[in-house]
Fold this protein.
Amino acid sequence: MADLRKKLQEKGLLDKPTAKSWTKIIILLAVVGGLYAAHIALPLKWGLLLLPLTGLLTTTIAMIGHEGVHSSACKSKAGNLTLASLAFPLFSGLSMNYWREKHNMKHHAHPNVIDKDPDIYSWPLTFSQEEYVTSGRVRRFFQKYIQAYIFWPIITPLVGHLMRYDGIKYIIKAPFVAKKNRFNKMWLLDAGLLLAHFFLWLVLPIMLGLTWQVTVGFYVLLWASVGVYLTAIFIVGHAGRPIVMEYDENWRLQIETGRRIKLGPVGSFFFVGLDYQIEHHLLPALSHFNLPKAAPIVKEYAEERGWEYEEVGFLRALWDSTVALAIAWKTPAIVIDGSDEKHAGLLEDFGPGHAVPE
């Protein structure tokens, strides 16, 4: 990685454009503020027609929180913390501490690795043959015949709400499982902003005269749409790429379990860097503004070593990810080994071919 970092440093790509990050989120907050006001003023049918745009821009703000937690948005620690606090617990109702542990510490360290990456475990779904064979008969039936068909229309609208629920559980449990410093500053900040989120989104509008039905209904529908968008952004980065049992080369793991999504500048604006999933995994502290320039360098770095660097269009990635859900029950995990010959053979075996219970 030293040579790669040197090339990126020479081009100034390791610098973090603080002003651009703040400009982007301030403009987005102003726009969504106007959209929220429009939802209040417009008749219901027009509000529902406007909801997909409102959900998309709301999702983009939440994604900037992801950058803040990775410390890739601003030059200073305080700047990243402020940005993450604003976009995650205060605006989105998602715990920073929960996200940092689940995403930064576990997923990024072991993407698509059995028993280590929490993102490939989501009951009752399965993402691998290994999990399928340990499931009960009813769950196996669901995983084999149903999960791919209900994933988008039923499961994804719940994602935003379930992430918030998991974060709240994490915050509540944290003081009881901590060995020392149970109520540290980060916990107090996170918990306080989560409470502020629910007050601003649910209590204050009712106090100002909106009915509870309108307030709660808008909140549920908006964040359901955000769940769909978030799923579409995150799933295409890894779903359909190999599930890994063991590996001996971490940088190879990061590259070969990820996927680069080819988008134009408009689509890339909303992805906030996750269309460059491979580059983001190799260098999570790299600003999403610099990832497009870093991508050719990273691709060359991978190809020089004979590592697979996948890049496809967004619709193709969505299709591949959905197909992967349909065949996950019979897709075995692989081993990433330092031997090119052995690894190539394992990649050929990636897919159906192992006996699994009906």
User: Anything to note?
Assistant: The CA atoms of residues 254 and 282 lie 6 Å apart. The first strand starts at residue 244 and ends at 247.
